[in-house]
Amino acid sequence: MIQSIGVLSRSGKILVSRQNVSIARTRVEGLYATFIRMCNTISNSSFETDGVRFVFRLCEDVYIVLITTLSSNVIEDTEIMNAIIASFQQKLTITSKGITQGMFEVLFILDEFLQWGFVEKISVSNVRTNLAMRSKDEEMYLQQLEIKKAEAARIAKQKAEEIREEKELKEKLAILQGLQTDNFFDQSPNKTPLPLSADYIPVKETPSPILEKKPVKKSVKTGHSKGGLQLGKKKQAETIIEEIKKEQEENTSSNAVVSDQIKEEKKLMVSNAIVKVSEESHITVSAETSAVNVVLNGTLAIAVAEGVEAEMKLAPIGVVAKAQMHPHVDPKAFVDRILKLKEGKKLAVNTPAVYVKWNYKAEEFSLPITFTCWPAEAQNGLTLSMSYEATQELKGVVVEIPNLAPITVVSIDGSLEVTDKIQWIIGDVNVGSNGSLEIEISGEGLETSKLFPICVEYLHEHTLTGNEVVEVISNGQSIEFEKEVMLNATYQIIP
């Protein structure tokens, strides 16, 4: 009987371990620690200790280890070891990194071969067929992993942009300070050149900005005339002065730009209030099961002008249960879709502050546009049929499909552009709009899984949660306000 099977690094770290009988964790860890201490001294692929036998194989930088009873058939154990390694090689790279990244595949393979410590009579090809079946847990894990990767990439890009802007600002400030220092020293009065004479005595300059000429009794002209020397100096001085003026004009213009930006920011509060709504949506839809996974993150920021006291009426629909309120927000009023602050608290002035944020996850959600996909293998390639139905008004809807091979359009509602990807351009849609696409892809050895992920892009005027401000009330009367809605949507269709 096989008690446990595990994959260990050379240093003894347990990457994965699957127990087939009831056994304590400390017991398992102790057995693997014993194996690591003794494996380097053993020349065979198996050895025995008190009560158990170890059957192992070194692959790249990991050990694959079977812990069996002493009565277990070592030949059968060796065969099952070879079958497990062969299955691993077909699905992943047998290294520490490959085992860690393919954890689901490792567990599935082990479960196919072993059941309650007894070996299942199954071939490697049967295992490969069984592993091709979809797992909802695995799909959810992969979806969450993709979302985390996209979020990490977005944050890294944002941080890099902030660092670049900060570096450029520092360089500009350093250049500006250098120019101001140069201007300070260059703005001293021009020195009048002394005429060349036979009895010319050099005079030591003092720190005083005014230079005095030492009187000269006689002046004898040399090959260079006095006027010629002064003319050259004049041209050089004029050039320097022109450069300084040009630099000062540039500094003045840059200061003017900053001043204009400040004025523009002040103009933002011409209205009584500003409402900024930001929402990111990550939508993943399974083409096979139509399962939906939606993650929504958003914020609601508000600012009012000086002396304005107001409360906000939110849209009648919205994901209230998932919203997090600022401590100053009145929770009782918020239940009635009214955003106002507690007694004695005031809204932010001029600069918007976040008062509501939400993080919503759901597997059932009314999408703004739904797609159905029907990929199929044909005799000389693949066929793909897609259809859509819009439940909300959207603009600029575009569907991007991986470009695998030459295609033939059978039918289409909209237009098609083929570059490195196949772009199905649907355009603007209204509530109830629908359409379809059918294409044939010619090529050998193509798989339907290579058609995914299919990405959908669109522009939306409203948040998916419905968390928006529809009216601002001050002293019992409705007042005008500015509203900015910033939406970032990621919509993917997976196999």
UniProtKB/TrEMBL annotation:
> How does the record describe its quaternary structure?
Oligomeric complex that consists of at least the alpha, beta, beta', gamma, delta, epsilon and zeta subunits.
Q: Which GO terms describe its cellular component?
A: COPI vesicle coat; Golgi membrane
Q: Which PANTHER family match?
A: COATOMER SUBUNIT DELTA
Per the record, the similarity remark reads:
Belongs to the adaptor complexes medium subunit family. Delta-COP subfamily.
Q: Which GO terms describe its biological process?
A: endoplasmic reticulum to Golgi vesicle-mediated transport; Golgi localization; protein transport; retrograde vesicle-mediated transport, Golgi to endoplasmic reticulum
| Matching InterPro entries | Coatomer_dsu, Longin-like_dom_sf
Membrane topology note: Peripheral membrane protein
Report which superkingdom the organism of origin falls in. Answer: Eukaryota
Q: Where in the cell is it found?
A: Cytoplasm; Cytoplasmic vesicle, COPI-coated vesicle membrane; Golgi apparatus membrane
Q: What is this protein called?
A: Coatomer subunit delta
Primary role: The coatomer is a cytosolic protein complex that binds to dilysine motifs and reversibly associates with Golgi non-clathrin-coated vesicles, which further mediate biosynthetic protein transport from the ER, via the Golgi up to the trans Golgi network. Coatomer complex is required for budding from Golgi membranes, and is essential for the retrograde Golgi-to-ER transport of dilysine-tagged proteins.
